[in-house]
## 1
Amino acid sequence: MTAPLPSTPDTAERAPCGLLAAGQDGIIVRINATMCGWLGMPPEAFIGKKKLADLLTVGARVFYQTHCLPMLQVQGSVAEIQVDVPHSDGTRIPMLMNIVRRQYEDGCNDEVAFFITKERRSYERELVQARRTAEAALDARRDAESKLLELNAALSQADRRKDEFLATLAHELRNPLAPIRNVIELLKLQLPATEQATKPLAVLERQVGHLRHLVDDLLEISRITMGQVELRRTHVTLADTMQAACDDTRPLAEAAGHRLHLALPDERITLDADPTRLMQVILNLLNNAVKYTPPGGDIWLSARFEAPHAVIAVRDTGIGIPQESLPTIFAMFSQLTPALERAQGGLGIGLALVRGLVELHGGAISAASDGIGQGSIFEVRLPAQVADAPAEPAPAAASAAWAGQRRILVVDDNIDVTETMTMLLETVGHHTATAHDGAQALAAARSYQPDIVILDIGLPDQNGYEVARQLRATPAGGAIFLVAATGWGQDADRERARAAGFDLHMTKPIDFGTLQAAIATLA
Ligand code: ADP
């Protein structure tokens, strides 16, 4: 068999690769149309005239001589050799070259297939580029995620600091309120009952009351956000709380010319709730209804049982709430523009507080309104039951009657507090002494022999609990009526005060009326 000469089938002519064959002397004996097209010359320019090595650039030719030819001799083929092949216009075409050496009777042919790698390279470049872009996007995402995490941590820290700041602020604001309230009480007792004296005093009292209310709300909301509120749950008859809340609100509602309607539920609904907090919830909603209803409006307080919940509703014919504000109205510090001029110095925490308290009871609150000027309705849902038994009679309110002179030792490191409190106590006929730290208190208790000691817990030398324990250990200590005066009124504080021997725990600023009532009940 002899080496076949230039006749190539059509498919080989137009194959998607360049094909050629060279004889034993390297001279090209066959070349297909694809290869001729790639190189820009007709077959006649190659066949019988050029060698395979002539098609290559100098560098490729050296490699061909030193590597390809020896390998062809040894193993009869080489594959995927990267070479540059010049076009007739001088440009270089990067190609991959496969060579197979075939033996024939009269010699051998090197049969070569070429593939252009330009596309493959640009494809590879695109792949590399795509990979780089993807990697860069991934890096950017990781960066963004870690920035987000940092931001999140900074935000939570800022939020925590804000909560702590609000708690401290409210706590600190309470302290100066105590002596101010004491002075007002004192002035009320001392000044003549003329209009000239009582009117400014009433303004002062109202404004201090308002301030105290704001400070209390602020303190309360910070406790709720910091999870520090403990409920003192008891069996509560809903109708009683509703009646009391209505009675409390009526003067305010009437002053604004509103009609306040109370619709008590048909059933006797009872709740396992903290009565003070429940009252706070209903009062807050009623106060808002009064505040945000133009004079001469109607306000309804009603309740119904929808097993297993009591639904308490406060409805008004007031300024209403725009639809878009309904979802955010319970957020802290949210005040709506149309209501701002009526806010009367509110902080926008009343509803946040109400929601916090309702949720602490395992309930939910919602607001609805048909829009501005269309009134609003707030509904509170709380777990409840319907009882068959008749309502228990409410305990009689403690009498605030004065019960004769007492010897009272007032202990507080704040001189304004001791001075104003003693002035007040003396004005209503008691005898007083003061002390400003624990050691002084113990010494005064020995020499002065008080019936009652009002003892601040945060004293400079030792805490009030310790002083109380030592007082109780003295021979006369058992008979003393011990009142703890603290800034914090948590259950745990009350429990601690009880354990230390206190008879009464009062949060600052001490309400003089409550204190008088407690003194009056003493035998
Ligand atoms: P404050 O009354 O101190 O502004 P609240 O948290 O009690 O704070 O109320 C937040 C806002 O919700 C109010 O500023 C007011 O815009 C709106 N709002 C509350 N109750 C009513 C109501 N009954 N009718 C219309 N708007 C109300």
Note: Residues 1-6, 390-403 have pLDDT under 50 and may be disordered.
## 2
Amino acid sequence: MKRTIIDRTATILYIAAMAVYAVSIIYMHWFMTNDKALPIPREEVQVIREWTYTDQLTGPEKITSPTRVEKDGRDTFVFEGKIPDSIPEGSVLAILNRVNFTAEIDGRILRKWDPSEAPIIGGTPKNSYFFVPLRQDDAGKTIKLTFKSDIFGGKMFDAFVGNRYEVVRYLELKNGAFQFAMSLVLLVCSLGIIIAGLVLKILFNQRMKLVLISMGIFVTSSWMVADSFVFQFIFRIQFIDGLMSYMTTLSIIFPFIAYLNSIQEYRYRKWYLILTIVEFLNMMVFTGLHISGVYSFAQSLLWLDIVLGVGVLGCMVLTIVDIVKGNSAGYRFVAYGFLCLMILTIIEIVLINTVVERVEGGVIIAGLYILFVFAIIQQLVEIRQIGIERDRANEEGAAKTRFLASMSHEIRTPINSILGMNEMIMKETRDPDILNYAGIINDSGTMLLSLINDVLDVSKIENDMEEIVCANYDPGRMFDAAAEVLRTGASKKELAVKIGKPRNLPKVLYGDEKRILQIVTNLITNAVKYTEEGTVTFTGECFEQSDGYVLCFYVSDTGMGIKEEDMDGIFDPFHRLELRKNQNIQGTGLGLSIVKSLVEKMNGEINVESTYGKGSTFSVRLPQKAKEDEISDKFNSGNAVEDDDLSDIDPNYIAPEARVLEVDDNRSNQVVVREFLKATGVQLDIASGGTEALKLCKVNRYDVILMDHMMPHPDGIETLHMIRSDEGGMNASTPVVILTANALRGSRAEYEAEGFDNYLSKPVESARLLKMVRKYLPPDKVMYKPKKRTPISENGPAPDTPGTALPADGPVDIPALLARFDNKEETVSLILEEVIKEGERKIPLLRQLAESGDIKRYAVEAHGVKGVMSSTCVPSLSDTAKRHELAAKEGNAGYVNDNLESFLAEYEQVLEYIREYLKGRKT
Ligand code: ADP
């Protein structure tokens, strides 16, 4: 369908070009041969055509110009003509000539010229116009022009008399100014394409066939520009080497032969070679004869043109043969153009050799334009074709990625179940054989899982679907996590470990923590994998620069090293070295390729130095941003933004009279607060959203309200505004503390401006919450027991690992969670039960929100997951949820959809882990 449109357009263009050509030929012919058509009145420029001719052999004879007298032993030709009776001031007589001449009136010499005056090295000048100055009293007198013999003899063209300016204008028009301009345009366009082609070739190593044809057109049009009589008026250069025009004519054919040969895919290369040799000999032989003075170009013109015509005919025949054979589909547009140009060139050659006085080149120019237009169409079609193919390839790639993504998700889920079940087996059996088998299942399953993840990563990267999602993170914590990977890996192989944490590491950086960790752990895993004995060293550096930091990591090992010749391919996907030697080392050859792509996506750099047999060092440099208020004012390292007057408050109080309202849409958060406040005995009401809170506020007077920020409509801020705007309402002036995870200094001011009394960051800590509530309780409602209870620790002692046999590196940090709740397993279980219920509701909700495109609400829900997971000590899921929240807030639905399944699978895995934990506790 698209092809036919192009075909039709090309045919229409072809017909249009032919029509334009026909009209312009008729117009030019009429315009240039009919003096009356010139816009200058005849009286202003007068033409002398009647002459009396004499030479040393014959007596006077009347002739009419233009005329030619054969040499036949003559060397002087005298033409006498009458200057018109009335001539304007400052008149000149213009004559076309290229030999020695003298112009005189009554023995007074007006102009004398010798070709040796022309600044052309050894060459013959082309015919050009000479201007002989006349006086007004020369009117009516006889002017005598004496010419030296040219190669053929003597020539007398028409002479023109008039004011110099008018004569120039007249001559410009007479000699095809339009044609000259057209040649000039062609010259500039073709030169532009040649330059563009060269740039493409140099920068992108791309070949454009159009360049060859442009070269041909460039040579042809430059010949036409230089050969035109108008040239001298435009460029003020009178003497052009006549030889040059012959040379250019002879060389025109070569680029065209090369172009035809290339578009016909070298099917007739022998014939084209023969044509090239013939034309080359033609050029060399006749140029040699001319330069040596044996046989001048002027004499050999006919032969030259015949051989040139044969070359053109040869190209034409080969092209026709190719078209007839049905091979021209790939270059059909240009074939039209070529046939046209060839026919017109032959017409031009015939005309040059038969018509004496004529502005040459018009026919060829028209042919060149037609060819040029078609060659450009051809090139555009090719570029378009490349574009279509690229789109198709991209589409295929994207489909492949979608397939891989969904397939790997489908595979991951059962593998997770297999691994989970296997873990149960390992837990329950004491049989060493079964334990051994289960261990193998575990290793292979884990390996399979990581392979699937790698394949997924690579296909995403290859299709440019991998996104770098930046957020604030703690680089110190990330470094520790990577170091832990090294310690664990190295201890299994009994390798020594050296870890040097970078100094000057800022507390917060802005970047993609998960991906950076992926890069570093990949390098660490490789170092451990490919080292049998010795040490693996992991260090880093951090430099400040104008717009942030440069984070550097170095991973060195004393392992097998990499050969010099293998260095180049090390980052290519599926590239593994020394397969035989490494056959026992598990790997896919994808790790480093993923690492490199990720580093490049982050505008970083990765380098490797290695000595074969001694070890390798991989170094990574990653520029990271650090927004000012996010560096020093970060919250999670010291709660710098929180109210520090809390330090003097004793949290061990009871306040059974006090009434507190808790507003949060997440059940587990509700339970956390409830459990924390339990010991104080306060009367706690819980609202699951803004609307419910408003209802409760209408009937109860609260001493403090604890308000979550991110909730589905109305959110915490809107709810606060509504409570405050209820003038005379029971809670219009109740202190409201916001509980939020937006813990940056800027946020504090913002929340204050919104009307909140204070601010608690999530995950909420027990002591801080108690102190905060205490701060706003009326003193008369607060009591301290005379004997102090067990103090509520801010950092509870780490309990023993619970009695369940859950793996220590599971997604939930149970010990930390227990510590948060003073090692009260009951409380923790209660909270975790809520987390499960909530999760069961949230997983389908998140999927539904993502599928329906409700990205705003999705952000709110993901935010909720982030908060719950961080307060229940599930850092990795909290992190993932944070990425989703950020992406959703930025409206990046692509990221959300691409990563939804893996997010939900991770969520599901966490729930499963918690279920296992709870089951273990019950039994
Ligand atoms: P693999 O999954 O095979 O480890 P990678 O892409 O991570 O794939 O690495 C590609 C190849 O580079 C490896 O197969 C290994 O031959 C070589 N290589 C990577 N890291 C090291 C290292 N620290 N020491 C020696 N060789 C290494």
Note: The pocket of adenosine-5'-diphosphate is lined by residues 526-527, 530, 557, 559-562, 570, 575-577, 582, 587-593, 616 (CB under 6 Å).
